[in-house]
Amino acid sequence: MSRTDAILKRLLTLHPKLIDLELGRTERMLEAIGRPQDRLPPVIHVAGTNGKGSTIAFLRAMLEAQGKRVHVYTSPHLVAFRERVRLAGKLVSARALNAALEECEAANGGRPITFFEITTAAAFLLFSRVPADYLLLEVGLGGRFDSTNVIEKPHGTIITPISSDHTQFLGETIAEIALAKAGIVKRGAPLVVARQPDDAMAVIDAEAKKLGVVPFAAGVDFDGFAQRGKLVYQDEDGLLDLPLPALAGAHQVDNAALALAAMRHFHLVQNEDQLGAGLRSVVWPARLMPLRGALSSYLAEGQELWLDGGHNAAGAGVLAAALKDMNKARPAPLVLVCGMMASKDAANFFAPLADMASHVFTVPIPGETGALPARALAGFPKARGIDTTIARSIPAALQRAAHFEGARIVICGSLYLAGAVLRQNRTPPV
Predict the structure, then answer these.
(1) Which of 411, 218, 402 is nearest to 319 (CA)?
(2) Is the pLDDT assigned to residue 119 strictly greater than 90?
(3) Any idea where the domains of the chain sit in the sequence?
């Protein structure tokens, strides 16, 4: 076990629950380490259900194309915990991460605090000590009571598409979930909002109005779409004709447009060429990415291998739409290799994929006690009428999938599964 893993294991024991949404413990922790949240570069705070990480990846790429130094905080990680903290463009070193975690552990003095709360405090400590031009800050869960929601005056806030997820913590309805997400809106900070269900947008509008904030909303104040091999973006300041983003899928055009809206609305743009350079260079692992590496050895000639971390019904919907577009360019049988956490809605995950998938292989997620057993997961695609096979591992599933001539094989269902895949593929995020 590495030193980092040993520290993280200790931190997991400080609270009986992994998730316990409130801000009191975080605020106490931050006071104990000197309020690092007050010494951060301008913060762009991002909440939502889907697309948070991709939107941040676009923002980072476009800002770095302008020569800006960018801190980034995201979760969860895929392979190594230090992926969550990017300092001025580079993943935090193990040495610096360990020192910050242990400093927070000592300052906490054994008092109850959740894993995400104390690790977020450590991230703020790191961000406060390294110069940067911006911090792109992703909400962990919800927004209002998330540990990241201690920034009193963000440079701007973004709410990505909201859908049903984490209902046990955020509420059963879209309106309740939207209320939690809208908790990041702050008086005096401009707000950019993706397209939303009507009931979600109504809540966001009401919460913003209380704070004197006028949302800059997709479909009303800005729009972006693919046209003739270009990304066309338009808002009140005019039209941009840009390259399509490097990330696959029509939903990434929407995420790119959201990031472009933030760049313009938050007055971050220097010139159009730099925006285009960012769109072309963006990288965000496990978001419908082609997989090349050790696992490719299991493929038969003519097959494709893709990895996607979508883990809810909305994520499956955008995955299905992207795969339909791929099928127009090259028709191919679709084979899914799927693992899911027990907390996710597996029944609805397979709904948008049911009329497309030729076969599903269900697999366990290595090292995750909260994962659905492959046998239990198999019942959900079977209920949708999809031929399904239980496999003992990802390599075992790929070996069997090799028999589907010319297949497009997609590994999906969980970011935890995606992390295991990248580890086995020997292509960790950098």
Answers:
(1) 411
(2) yes
(3) 3-281, 289-425
In angstroms, rounded to a whole number, what is the distance separating the alpha carbons of residues 137 and 17? 24
Longest Cα separation, the chain: 60
- CATH homologous superfamily of 3-281: Mur-like, catalytic domain (3.40.1190.10)
Short-list 332, 338, 407, CA closest to 376 = 338
Check the CA dihedral 255-259-265-271 and report its sign.
negative
pLDDT of residue 311: 84
The total of other beta-carbon atoms located within 10 Å of residue 364's CB is 20
* Homologous superfamily of the 289-425 domain (CATH): Mur ligase, C-terminal domain (3.90.190.20)
* Sign of the torsion angle spanned by Cα atoms 370, 394, 82, 281: negative
The vertex-139 CA angle with 80 and 68, nearest 5°, equals: 75
Phi, psi of 257, deg, nearest 5: -65, -40
Query: Around Cβ 175, how many Cβ atoms within 10 Å?
Result: 16
CA gap 152, 188 in Å, rounded:
10
Please state, in angstroms and rounded to a whole number, the distance separating the CA atoms of residues 400 and 256: 36
What is the reported pLDDT for 19? 85
Is this prediction's pTM over 0.90?
Answer: yes
Phi, psi of 2, rounded to the nearest 5 degrees: -75, 165
Give pLDDT tens digits for 34-48.
Answer: 999 999 999 999 999
- 3-state secondary structure at position 246: coil
Task: Give DSSP secondary structure letters for 330-380.
Answer: S---EEEEE--BTTS-HHHHTGGGTTTEEEEEE---TT-TTBPPHHHHHHH
Joined tokens for residue 341: 């956490």
Three-state secondary-structure class, residue 197: coil
Burial of 131: CB neighbours in 10 Å, binned 0-12, 13-18, 19+: exposed
If one counts every other C-beta atom within 10 angstroms of the C-beta of residue 129, the result is 12
| Angstrom distances, CA of residue 252 to CA of 175, 245, 260, 413 | 25, 7, 12, 18
Residue 169 has pLDDT above 90, yes or no: no
CA–CA gap between residue 131 and residue 274 (Å, rounded): 22
Per DSSP bridges, beta strands 408-412 and 334-338 are parallel
C-alpha distance from residue 301 to each of 281, 408, 420, 426 (Å): 29, 11, 24, 21
The four Cα atoms 296, 297, 298, 304 give a dihedral, to 10 degrees, of: 30
